[in-house]
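ESCALATION

Customer reports they have been waiting on this structure for their group meeting. Please prioritize. Original submission:
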Amino acid sequence: MMTGAEYRQSLNDGRETFFEGEPVANVAEHPILGITVDSAASGYDRFYKPDAGAVGEFMKVPSSAEELREQVELHETVDLLTHVTYASVMTLLTAADRIEESLPENAARIRAYVDEVQAKDLRITQCITDAKGDRSRRPSNQDDPDQFVRVVERRQDGIVIRGAKLHISAASMGHELMTIPTKAMKAGEEDYAVACMVPVNATGVKIINTTYAPRHEDTRDFPISGQQHTPEGFVIFDDVFVPTERVFLDGHAEFAGMFAHSLGLWERLGGLAAMVRSYDALTGFAQLIAEANGLEKTGHIREKISEMLINSTLVRSTLEAAVENCQVTADGVAFPDELYTNAGKYHGAANWSLMVRHLHDIGGGSILTAPGIADFENQSVGHLARKYMGTMQSVDGLYRAKLFHAIRDFTADAYGGWNAVTNIQAGGGLYAQRIVSRLHYDMTRAKRTALEVGGLSEFADEIL
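Update from on-call: job pushed to the front of the queue and completed.
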């Protein structure tokens, strides 16, 4: 296993990564990107147990609902890169299981790769969303054929790929890029049916980074994003060679969707678990600021918080149902229930804006205008800011200001905007979750129930 220090050193491998128009020579030492490296390094140190081999507890493959719950709870406490690596490994194992019968050699490559990446204690990021070009057209009908990642050359020892993948969290901080189709492919789109593993430092890989991290010198007004943030990578594959042993799918259009769907399942489970915590935080912030404002007993405030806590409970219940109703494959691997995972992720994402609206309505304008922490330290106005930000003897003005800053950072600033968009888009967007929910919902049961309730059971055999 690697230590945090060894992980930092491993990033100096010649990778081409850029931030705000400039090349980054050393990701670990960069003043903004380096914060994410620090978080990932702490994850390495946390799970460093050399006597246990390279497979840490965070990589445990669950075989029951109890073990799946343990992994979900554990991964709510880990850094993002550690979590993404686990989700990637589970995606690969899920895909291997699903293509085993038709493509046994490919499934064997996947399992061999998983063994390798575990032995080397590497971190993986997920490259799935293509540039897409004209969204109304199929990949093979674009003006520019490179708008979806594709195979441009096949050699005896591997393939060459070209294209770009967008919204790749922490792409510059990992070692491997899990590159898979963004959607199901059809006949004639075989070149786009490609799944493979690409080292971040492979020749032709270029990563452009963006981040919501605050640029302020004093980050105390950003208690969340000032401590941890995740850069998003725009990953470009400029004619990148991939050896055969790292190619998991090439040309089999009928299996492209399986890789995308496998990732979607684990990404949505992770997103759902994160949303449980976020929903509780939103509800907690609403109650705290209502109490600090002296309005916790006001009727319309209580009603808004009641609606928030009900939504929080519903999101949590879908996570519990997804875990408790998991399916165990013939290989003994537990996968979360598809319906509850997708329905829960959909409900959480679709109602996020309502939760935030209630919080902002309860909190008031000081969410945006509360004085900064440095203002409270000013000898001329600090004591006055503290006096007038207070509301009663039991509510300190500095505490109330810090509470406003936390709410702003979480919901109404750069990180808040990132939250608003990613909660909808992560895991494939609302439409994708509706499709999968409909696929797994027992509509026959619903129709039969309707016939029974309506006194129409005599038509059941004919209708169903």
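Sent to customer with the following note: The longest strand covers residues 158-169.
Escalation resolved.
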